[in-house]
Design goal:
By secondary structure, this protein is an alpha+beta fold. The chain has one domain: Roll (Hypothetical upf0131 protein ytfp). It is built from five helices and seven strands; from the N terminus they run βαββαββαββαα. The strands form two sheets. Strands 1-3-2-4-5 form a five-stranded mixed beta barrel. The chain has a two-stranded antiparallel ribbon with strand order 6-7. A hairpin with a 2-residue loop joins strand 6 and strand 7. Helix 4 packs across helix 5. The mean pLDDT is 95.
């Protein structure tokens, strides 16, 4: 992503769906293969602290993920990338990569994605449901309470016809 030419796409699978924070000219349901949405990142900043981590979504290895692809015009590409890096890369828990995504209309585009780094100390692998609920309940960070993040994301996914059983389970118990 060192040089951006032309319009570019960003794949949103969590809070980017309901709070992208950047200008875009197209917003399209999309499918990413090879990664799935998971509550697998301890949040030390946005939705928690190192002392009381929250839990946020990441793209984890395997499966597929339905989300939203946003098309950003070329003249906004650099500012959008800078914004996303500031938002998503605070602790470098995500790997920035470009992956093909299939848009709802069948087009395949290359989109910027943030995939969890499984070797990072914030990677929360295979937590039990009650542990997930515990971390979400306790999380409070600079972007607000962790329960708000989970409820907003679960609702945004439901509005798109996407059902995430763990996210829905947690949201129902908050």
């Amino acid at each position: 992503m060192s040089e951006l030419h032309g319009d570019f796409w960003v794949f949103g699978y969590g809070s980017l769906i309901w709070r992208p924070g950047f200008e875009f000219v197209e917003r399209v349901p999309a499918l990413l293969k090879g990664s799935h949405r998971a509550l697998c990142v301890y949040s030390y900043s946005h939705r928690g602290t190192p002392e009381k981590p929250g839990l946020v979504l990441g793209l984890d290895h395997g499966g597929a993920c339905r989300g939203i692809a946003f098309r950003v015009e070329e003249h906004r590409a650099a500012e959008t990338l800078a914004y996303l890096r500031e938002r998503e890369q605070i602790t470098m828990v995500y790997k920035e990569c470009v992956r093909p995504v299939r848009l709802e209309d069948g087009r395949i585009v290359l989109a910027l994605c943030y995939v969890v780094d499984r070797s990072h100390n914030q990677y929360a692998a295979r937590l039990e449901r009650n542990d997930v609920l515990h971390f979400v309940r306790q999380g409070l960070g600079k972007s607000g309470p962790n329960p708000e993040y989970v409820r907003n994301t679960a609702q945004a996914l439901r509005d798109l016809g996407i059902h995430d059983s763990l996210l829905d389970w947690v949201a129902e118990r908050l």
